[in-house]
Automatic annotation (TrEMBL):
GO terms for molecular function: methionyl-tRNA formyltransferase activity. This is Formyl transferase N-terminal domain-containing protein. One of its GO terms (cellular component) is cytosol. PANTHER family: METHIONYL-TRNA FORMYLTRANSFERASE (PTHR11138), METHIONYL-TRNA FORMYLTRANSFERASE, MITOCHONDRIAL (PTHR11138:SF5). Residues 6-174 form the Formyl transferase N-terminal domain. Signal peptide: none annotated.
Amino acid sequence: MTLKYKIALFTTSDSAANIIEICQIKNLSEVVVIIYPRNRKNTEKIKSVIRMAEKLNIPCIEQPYTEGLEEFERTLVNKGVNLGISWNYSQIIKVSTLRIFELGIWNMHGGKIPEYRGANVLQWAIANGEREIGVTWHVMEEEVDSGDILIKDTVPVEETETALEVRDKIFSKGIQLFKILWHNFINGQITKESPDLTKGKVYPPRRMIHGLIDTSFSKKQVKDILRAQCPPWPRPYIIYNGEIRPVHGIEECKDYTEIVSFPCKDGLINLYLGPEVNDKELKKLLLEKQNR
């Protein structure tokens, strides 16, 4: 019997095993290839994805950004894929690749659409003080996070939760939603909602320049950016005595070298600082920002 759905799974996380388990319906659907981004090939996360693929006996290939793209797309066509699933994926998928999939590519976006489209929206939302974050499965289109919404929900964000803790909640909710979505899909009960793209915002990737804490911040904003940019992401920082100093916390913590009393707009707050970050490019950007 011919498979009705041949799935290509784009992922950078071995948690994708949960997606595969839901999709593997005998004689109906099968994940026929797992795809990871070439530019992250040597990371521990991708090595874990490759081990997962080997264990499940599913071919695993890398997605090039430009060089080798035609051969990559030819491989997908030869495998007869007609549905793509993007789970915790970090590389842009080219329009020419999107067009291969008759049923489209579904993406799990860790943010509300249209309010939080774009990159690093988990960090942006927490830094903005949001008390809930969206979990949205949608159809991928050329414009970022603009396609029809397939299913959505939210997860609460507690005042003390870090981005790392909230990310785990997003992944858990994403799997729960996918199970419902897949059941609806194979039973012909899927519904779609077009987002109003006149609302919301497309956020840029968070860069080092976005981590600056200055005296315009309230104490709450300092706490929020510390939660948003917790390890493994780059820590926020202040300029102290002309040096870029990462902020490790607002209470005693590991690896701090100095405590300073920092003037927020609503009063003083103690910051536990790490050693100077010697980043010439960042210093140049900060100087340009100061001179505007």
